[in-house]
Amino acid sequence: MRKPKAWGQACPNTACSHYKLIDRGNVKSIATYETQSGKRRIFRCKECGEQFAETRDTVFYDLRTSEEKVMIVLKLLLRKVELSAISFAMGVTEETSLEWLRRASEKADEVNQNLLREVEVTQVELDELWNFVLRKRSPGAAADGESPEESSDGRQWVWVSFAPEYRLLLATHVGPRTFQSALTLIQLTALVVLGVPVFFSDGFSSYLPALLAVYHQLKTFPRTGKPGRPKHPVKEPHPDLVYAQLVKHKSQGRLKGMTRRVVLGAERLAALGLKISTSFVERFNLTLRHALAPLARKSLGFCKDRTQLRRRVTFYQAYYNFARPHQSLRQPLPGVESLDVPRFQPKWQPRTPGMAAGLTDHVWSFRELLTAKFEPLHCQSISG
User: Fold this and answer.
1) Exposure string (b/e) for 30-62, b if CB count within 10 Å is 16 or more?
2) Sheet with strand 38-45: strands edge to edge
3) Whole-model pTM?
């Protein structure tokens, strides 16, 4: 009996017993059709009879625009081009570009949730980028202290957790500069990493209580037999938690000095031999500002609502981790040390942060990022 061909497709019918199960022999190609992007296939599930196009559950599903044009618009959104300029150059409305961005961010979020899991990291650097949303007022409103949920001058922050050893963007969050935003970032990071890594940040006071809220253990007190209520359990820092701060002292915009201080876990930090630093996450902040137009300084290209900014940051996270090779992660190809290697022969193997962390084995194409399909997480754990 001939083995069923693996199409990389899954039944999209939620009522089907093979829902979202990829290459289980239940999907059969039954027809083809022509589009602006070429020939596409139609599949049928043998279990439930559902028929669907190969672009189902992808960014390109049910679009009348060519895939190439959609990808160009989305690439420009990741290359610091303002939305109005994209609309002018590509001949599409801003609403259309934002709809494609919505689809791409949802697919990127799916990629992040399925691949950014159980990452073994030694240290995590935390930081936040100052930005404007909706309105831009009071340029002198510095990024110090906390800001309310709806700031009157439009201030919002892009929160980032970064793994320097892999150049991996672990988690992002867009919100005000409050304890709740810091807590959200730490919670998102804890869902991605294994164990308790070492945390470095600037001197923002909300990071410490946020870390203690996530990484702690309960200390209980035994009954004494004396009258009165027993003591309530108290939260203590996790014994493996290490947290240190790098506080920069500035005057009139110029750096005057730095103070390194260990807040928790001095002994473990000394044993690991790590230097207190936030240089990698700060360098990534520059990369992010050069990639997304709304984050550019002294510009009118800022987002008019927080949802659009979140979508851009989520989309960029997946692109940065899996489809953008990082020069510092490249490795020499075998045999390139020889003097007989031709001058123009490739000498380096490009690698992405996702490859360095062992989350994928190749550099993703842009189309692959927009069309990736995954099985439900519980099915992945069973098959794994």
Assistant:
1) eeeeeeebeeeeebbbebeebebbbbbbbbbee
2) 27-35, 38-45, 51-53
3) 0.89
Which residues are bridge partners to 198 per DSSP? 123, 242
Cα-based distances in Å from 62 to 8, 56, 80: 19, 8, 28
Q: Based on the structure, what is the number of domains in the chain?
A: 1
Identify the band that residue 104 occupies on the pLDDT scale cut at 50, 70 and 90.
very high
Residue 183 has pLDDT above 90, yes or no: yes
Domain membership of residue 326 (yes or no) is no
Side-chain half-sphere exposure of 150, counting CA atoms within 13 A: 2
**pLDDT tens per residue, range 131-164:** 888 766 544 444 445 544 555 557 889 999 999 9
Cα separation values, 218 from 238, 239, 324, Å = 9, 11, 42
- Domain membership of residue 21 (yes or no) is yes
Tokens linked to 32: 């083809």
Confidence category of residue 172, pLDDT binned at 50, 70, 90: very high
Structural domain including 39 reads: 1-57
Q: Residue 64: inside a domain, yes or no? A: no
CA dist 2 and 8 (Å) reads 18
Q: For the packed helices 83-90 and 67-77, what is the interaxial angle rounded to 10 degrees?
A: 150
Residue 154 domain-assigned? Answer: no
Q: Report the C-alpha gap between 139 and 348 in whole angstroms.
A: 44
Residues composing the chain: 384
Backbone angles phi, psi at 30, to 5 degrees: -120, -15
% of residues, the chain, pLDDT over 90: 68
Task: Determine the 3-state secondary structure of 208 from DSSP.
Answer: helix
Q: Is 145 exposed, middle or buried (0-12, 13-18, 19+ CB in 10 A)?
A: exposed
Mean pLDDT of 106-110: 97
Task: Fill in the DSSP letter of residue 329.
Answer: G
The two beta strands, 331-332 and 216-219, are: unpaired
